[in-house]
User: Fold these one by one.
Assistant:
Number 1:
Amino acid sequence: MVTHNSAFSEETLHQFVRKQLRFNSGKNIFYSGEENKPEFLQETCDLIEILQKNLFPEREKMIEFTVDKVLSEFYKVNQYYHFDKNAQSELKQVYRDLLDDITSVSKETDIAAMAEKHYSRLQQWLQRTNPFAASLYPEDVSVVDEVVCAEYSAEMQMEILGLNLSTMVGPVLDVGCGAKAQLVTHLTKAGFDASGIDRNAEPGANLKKTDWMDFSFVPGHWGTIISNLGFSNHFRHHHLRNDGDYLDYARKYMEILQSLKPGGAFYYAPDLPFIESYLDPQKYRITKREIPRTGFFSVKIEFIII
C-alpha cells in the first residue's frame, strides 16, 4: 500500500512508473477480453488518490520519463515498431490527458473507467502510428509474442561482418549499436574514434540516443559505418510489408552511403539485393560474405576513390 505522504520524490514516482509498466509487460493492448487485460495496479490507484491532493513535481519532466519507458516496452515487444517525432509527441499528449484525468477522478469506479479510457487512447495511438500491429496481435489473444531482438558480442559482430581492424578507416559509426554498445566499446579500446546511435542507448560522449531515421548522416564524414542486423534488417521488413516505409528507407540508405569518405565502407547484414543492384559500380564496390546456416549474406559497400 502507498503511505499518505504529502511529497513525492522524482525517484519515487519513477519507481511507480517502472512497476506499473512491469505489471502490464507482455499484455496485448488490442485484447478485448477481461482477464489479463492492461490495467492499473492497486498501488497505482492508491497513488492517484494521493496525487490528486498534490501538484505533480515537474509535470513535463515526468511525462518525458514515462514516455521514454513506454517506448522501450513497445520496442521490447516488437523491434519493428517505429515511432517518429510526431508519434512521440502524440504519446506525450496521451499521458498529459491521463494526468488531466487524474486531477478530476473521484471514486474507485471512476479510476477503473479512467484506466480503460487511457488504454483505449494507447491502443488508438499504436494503431494510428503502426497500423500493422492490429493485424499482428488479434483482440482475442491476451499475451503478445515478442519479436526477438538480441545484442551480440563485439567478436561475433566482427566475424559476421568480416571486419578487419587493420584495414578499417575512421571515424566509425555503429548504426543500431544496442543499449550496451559492445562493438563501439571494443573499437574504442582498439584505438578507433568510434561512435554509436541507438534508440535504447544511454547518451554519452560517443553514444547518441536516437532513431537512425532521425539521425543526420553528414556527407563525406564517416570512414566506416556498421549495422549488424539493424538498419538493413528493418529495411527488408519495410520492403516486404504492404504498408512499409521502404521509400524512406531507400532514401536513408543512400544518405548513409553518401556520408562515407572516399575509401570508406558501409558494413551490414543481412544483404539488400533489391537496392544493391541499382548502385553505380563506378562509385561503389560490393563485396558479399555468406553467413553460415542462414541463407543471407553480410555486405561491404566501399566508396571507390576516383
Number 2:
Amino acid sequence: MWFNKLIVSVVKLLPKKVVYFFAKKYIAGVRLQDAINTVKELNSKNILATMDVLGESINTKDEVLLAKTECIAVLSAIEENNLNANLSIKPTQLGLLIDDDFCFEQVRELVEKAKSINNFVRLDMEDSGCTQKTIDLYKRLRKDFDNVGIVVQSYLKRTFDDVCNLNENNAHYRLCKGIYIEPEEIAFKDKQEVRDNFVKVLKRMFEDKCYVGIATHDDYLVDEAYKLIKEMRIPNDKFEFQMLLGVKEDLREKINKDGYKVRVYVPFGQDWYAYSIRRLQENPNMAFQIAKNIFSLG
C-alpha cells in the first residue's frame, strides 16, 4: 500500500502531458469525438457503454448550465451515431451542492431528452455527504420517469437498508464497492466485509426483480454473481456487468464470451487529470503498471 501511495505522489509531480501518456488507457480523451470513437470500437466487440463528461463538485450555476449542455451533446451524439450507449452523470456536476430544486430541473431536462430518444441516464454516487441527497433526487425523478437509474455502494453500512427502501419503486441500479474514503462508523473497512455486503445487496436486488448493473473488477464478486444468477435463474435481461475503460480487459472479455452483457464506463473531457489521479489512488494495479512504464522508458 505504501508503495502505491509513493507512486501516486511521484505521478502528481510529473507534467500533465506525461501523466496523460500513462492515463490515456483509462479515459477516452478530451473531446466528445474521442468518446464517440471509443464507444464505436467497444460496440464493434458487442460491448455496451455509458458515457461520462468528467467533472464534479461544480460551484456556480453557470458552470452547471455548461455541464448540462455538454451532457445534452452526448445524448445527441449517441442518437446521431447510433451508439449502443447511455449517459452517466455526477449530481454535483449538475448543481446538487448548490440548490436542490435547481439541480432537479437540470437533471430532469437531461432525463427528458434521453426519454425522447429512447435512452437512459444514470446518477453516479459520490461521497457519503451526497448519498441521501442523491437518493432523494432519484426518488423525485422516478415519480415521472422510468429511464433513470442510481448507483449504490456496498462499502457503506446503510446500503442494504437503502436498497430495501428503493426497491419499493422498482429501482434500476449500478452496484459497486465504492471508492471514497469514509469513516469506519459508516463504512466497512475489511475487504471481505465489503464483498459480503455486495453479495447480500445483489441477492436482495435480484429477489425484488430489479435491474442491476453489476459493477466490479473483482474476480471473486464476478464468480459470486455468476452463482446467484444460476441459482436464482435470473434472466439475462435483468442484469449486466459493468467495468471501467482500460481495467481488467481480460475479465471483461471472459464475461462477454460467457454470453452476459457488459457495459464499459467511458469517461472523457477537460477534467481528465483529477479523474486519473483519483483512479490511481483507488487502483493499486494501475499505479504499479504506471511505475513499470516509467522505469522502463530509459
Number 3:
Amino acid sequence: MKLDNAYMDVVEAELFAATMTRKERGDKVVGVYCAFTPKELIVAAGGIPVSLCASSNDIIPVAEQHLPRNLCPLVKSSYGLALTDTCPYFHFSDLLIADATCDGKKKMYELLSQIKQVHLLGLPQTVDNEKAHEYWLSELYRLRALLEAELGNEITDESLREAIKLYNRVRESKVRVFELNKGDIPLLTGSEASIAVDPVGFEVDLPGYIDRMNRVVEFAGERGGIKPRPRILLTGCPTTSKKVLHIIEESALVIAMENCGGLKTVDLVEEDGDPMAALARASLKIACPCMSPNQRRYDLLAELIREYRVDGVVDLTWQACHTYNIESYPLSKFIRDELEVPFLQIETDYSDSDTSWIQVRVEAFVEML
C-alpha cells in the first residue's frame, strides 16, 4: 500500500461509480460544508453525504468576480467551483446543507442559493448554556423534517441510531490511525495520516471507508516505524490545501492534526437514549473558534500535546479567516506560557507565491526545537 495521490484517485473513482449507481436508483446526494452538520441524519434518510469545501486555487479568480479578494480562500474556492460547475461533488448534489459559522461562509451561502437549494442551519455562537443546546436541537429537528421531505424517506429513531453507530465506528477508526504516532517511533507521516482519514468524496460506502482506515493501521504496523523527527501538532483552519502540511514535513513530522477532519471531530455520539439529543450534544462539542468562548479548543490541544508528546505547535490560518486569526493570539500565549511548548502561526492562502517564505519560517522553527 502506498498512501499517495494515486491511491486517492483509485478510491475516488470507485466511490464516484458507486454514487452514480445509487443516483440512478433515485438516491440523492446531500452536500455539506461544515462538521457541525450531523451526517447521521443524511444517512438515516437514505442520502449520500459529500463534503464540499474546496482546495483549488485555480478557480479563485472566477469567484472574485462576485466575492471580495480579501476573503478566505476556502470560501472563494468553494464558491468558484460551484459557480463554474466544475466540481462533480457539487454538480451531483441535490441539496446543500450549510452551517452559520463564519460571516464569509454565511454570505457565500446566499449566493449559492441562486445556484442550488441551500438549507441554512442556525448554529448558536456559544455552547455554555442550556438554551443554546435547546435551540440547536430545534434546528436539527428542522433539518430532519427537510431531509425526510426532500429525500422521500422517514428518519426513524432506529435508523438514526444505526447511522450513529456506523459513524462512531468511522470516528474510532480515525483515532486508531492517528494513535499510530503516539509512541516513541511514529508509524505514519502526517501526509499519510491525512490521506488515510480522508473520505475521498462521496460517503457512499461507510463500511468500506472504515475498512480502508483499518487496512492502513495494519499496513503501518507491518511496515514499521519511520525515522523520528521533531514532533509537530498542526492546528487551525481545515487543511483543505496541503501546502503547509507538506512544507512542515520537509524538515519535521506532523504527528497529529487537530483541524476539522482530524482530531477535533472524533468525539463519539451517545448510542443510547434520544438520538437527536445525542447528536445535538456531540456536534456542539466541536472546538471551533466560531464559538465564543472556545475553551474546549484549549483543553483539547493541551490533551493532545501531552498524549502525543508534541515538540511544537503550528497554527494554520487561511488569510482573512478572522475567527481563527484572532484566536491565534490568546492560543499562542496559552501554549507558550502555560504549556511551555513552542508555537508558530502561519497565515497563508492557496497559492504558491509565499512557499519560500513559509519554508524559511518553518525551518527556523524546527531548528529551534
